[in-house]
Amino acid sequence: MLITETMKRSMTSAQQIRISVHGVDFVCLTQGSGPLVLLVHGFPDIPQSWSAQIDALSHQGYRVVAPYLPGYLPSRIERGAYLDKASLVHYLAGLIEQISPGESLHYIGQDWGAIIGYGLCAARPDLITSAVLMAVPHPTIVNKYLLSPKHIHRSFHWWFFQQRDLPEQALTADDMTFIDYLWSYWTSEGYKDEEHIRQVKQCLKQPGVLSTALAYYRAMFDPDVANPSLSTLRNSLSNSISVPTLALCGADDLRAELMREQADCFVGEYHYIEVLEAGHFLHREQSDQVNKILINWLGSTAGNNQKKRGADGS
Q1: Fewer CB within a 10 Å sphere, N or C end of the chain?
Q2: φ, ψ for residue 129 (rounded to 5)?
């Protein structure tokens, strides 16, 4: 599928803001005014991935903030920073507390943005009014199928990235054709997004970014690189999710099989929708359809009071 003119459109008035918290200097794109919506990208990607959503949601009366993930320049992290899931949840929780002091916000995440989102909803529900989590199953379901051959094949990069040095060599070879391959493998047949992928590569080619992106994956299976001071937060990542949640997946993404099974992981309002003719990057492959779903969802949860937090975060 070719990109339509609507999908190509650039953000009309997005600005950059910088927020420093928990050792991360976040750089975020922001646009619009109104109730706050946080858009969090995944790998291999950048916040411009949300260009169509930033325009659509800001035009609907929302203030949209889309950060570069920690270590994806220009969002800088301290040398030797922890990058395990609990640490990533901790960093994003700090960002939310800075941009939305005293109130919860709407959270939308895809890929790593969804992984972090599940953690936030479980451990820090006080921060989230509603959540939309795309293209990655709940961790309970991931663990259930972790050794399933076809899902190992679908998520081969999780395993490949555990190797030393070879992933860096493969990812940087021949103008990062590995990144082209991942986008082709994970999207619907015929989908092209060459200009955006070029921008993604520009980000990953900056010093330290690729090693940081790989460190996210390496921390998944190596408890020795987890921040020991976050044990309480880490334990709470397995809490049932009470935050109103909409899960989305492209119908052409093999992970849809897994996401159909995750309703029991939620004790609050939960809905699941598959987007036709879309794969892993559904928000770009079918941006108009996804935008309609998001606008309807945010409108339906508008009656939920934004949660007020005390000084202790409660």
Answers
A1: C
A2: -75, -45
